[in-house]
Write a structure and sequence with these properties.
It is built from twelve helices and 15 strands. The chain is α/β, with parallel strands linked by helices. The radius of gyration is 23 Å and the shape is globular. Bound molecules: pyridoxal-5'-phosphate. Pyridoxal-5'-phosphate binds near residues 77, 156, 184 and 204.
Length: about 400
């Protein structure tokens, strides 16, 4: 099949929407436009039925016992805000300490920073060089004031999957609530809130082939019954936890996408893992000083994150971005280019944190695309290194750390 450009390999920023999810949504923009809270006529009943069906589909994907445990939000960011702020406010009498990790996504880290300004204490535990949280370090961070542990299921940059069941067990033994940001994991790898002891879980439709603008927070109802203070007050929708008219078409798309992911998961993850490994082998066998970031096995099957020494990630992207959509871990903020804090947290040097590239595959990725992107990446990295005096010096055996650069 002929390649179609640009090639999308940035599926951890968002996924393409599955056409079957779009199909399911369409009637809810047109003839099925009712308000799900209109309890007294068929338009409302139809909308409510569709929302309840989607609730069931999402509950099934994450192993929730009761669809009522699913609270719809506008996305992952809002779900995380609701979980962390909602618990901090509701359990204030019990304690004021939260434990999280330094590699969480900004939605968690920025909420924690705000909570700290409001008097909540937050401990940010480090991770090991493979991106995994050490359970003993986590245990050691717990105090008698700890009310919540929040650890992401799978990391958005390096894809490392935490031992969620072990963390759930630890939280339960200590009588502490456990929230996980499963935005990157739900629909991609098995998630089971019951078996894994998860009390709160955030997820989003746009990372599992659904539409943007809708997500969900799972809130456990039994063993323990978790209570959270709402962040948005109003008509008392979503059992008072999140007021506002529900976006029925988006919710229908989310539910359909969740069901499709559940059905496709075993086959899809095996296919993507094989493609990802092909890409990894192609690149690592052709480029020297290229380093795989994150855990080599415990990672999302569609994720590949590599640092290329002596080149900047952004430069590689610039060399490729007319034809391929990838992502570098560095964040371009106003005038400065910040190295990836996630890669930095794994113990990499600032240079390597600056040089990471994330390849993320998806349901519609093909072998031809993988081969093309792999070959082009190799070419671009080699071209950039040919122009790099640092690479030349390193190849001549000069220890770059021994050089004293003269400031003008
Ligand atoms: C790990 C992680 N958490 C949270 C979010 C935020 O989700 P949303 O974009 O739905 O607000 C993202 C988005 O990419 C993410 O990767």
């Amino acid at each position: 099949m002929a390649l179609k450009f640009p090639i999308f390999m940035d599926a951890q920023s968002t996924t393409p929407v599955d056409p079957r999810a779009v199909e399911a949504m369409l009637p809810y923009f047109t003839e099925k436009f009712g308000h799900p809270a209109s309890r007294n006529h068929p338009f409302g009943w139809e909308a409510e039925g569709a929302v309840d069906a989607a609730r069931g589909q999402i509950a099934k994907l994450i192993g929730a016992r009761d669809p009522k445990e699913i609270v719809f939000t506008s996305g992952g960011t809002e779900a995380i805000n609701l979980a962390l702020k909602g618990v901090a406010e509701m359990y204030r009498e019990k304690g004021n300490h939260i434990v999280t990790t330094i590699i969480e996504q900004r939605a968690t880290l920025d909420v924690c920073k705000r909570l700290e300004r409001q008097g909540v204490e937050v401990t940010y535990v480090p991770v090991q060089p493979d991106g995994l949280v050490d359970l003993e370090t986590l245990r050691g961070a717990i105090t008698d004031k700890t009310i919540l542990i929040s650890v992401m299921f799978a990391n958005n940059e390096v894809g490392t999957i935490q031992d969620i069941a072990a963390i759930g067990k630890l939280a339960k033994a200590k009588g502490i609530l456990f929230h996980t940001d499963a935005t990157q994991a739900a629909g991609k790898v098995p998630v089971d809130v019951e078996a894994m002891g998860i009390d709160l879980l955030s997820c989003t439709a746009h990372l599992l082939y659904g539409p943007k603008g809708v997500g969900a927070l799972y809130v456990r109802r039994k063993g323990p019954r978790v209570r959270i203070a709402p962040m948005i007050d109003g008509g008392g929708h979503e059992r008072g936890m999140r007021s506002g008219t529900l976006p029925v078409p988006l919710i229908v798309g989310f539910g359909t996408a969740a069901e499709l992911c559940g059905q496709a998961m075993p086959e899809e993850s095996a296919r993507l893992r094989a493609l990802r490994d092909r890409l990894q082998d192609l690149i690592l066998s052709n480029v020297d000083e290229a380093y795989l970031n994150g855990h080599p096995e415990r990672r999302l099957p569609h994720n590949l994150n590599i640092s290329f020494a002596y080149v900047e990630g952004e430069s590689v992207l610039m060399g490729l971005n007319k034809e391929s959509a990838l992502s570098s871990g560095s964040a371009c903020t106003s005038a400065t280019l910040e190295p990836s804090y996630v890669i930095g947290a794994l113990g990499a040097s600032a240079e390597l944190a600056h040089s990471s590239i994330r390849f993320s595959l998806h349901r519609f990725s093909t072998e031809e695309e993988v081969d093309h992107v792999g070959r082009r990446t190799i070419e671009v990295v080699k071209r950039l290194r040919d122009m790099s005096p640092l690479y030349e010096l390193a190849k001549e055996g000069v220890d770059l750390k021994s050089i004293h650069w003269k400031a003008e």
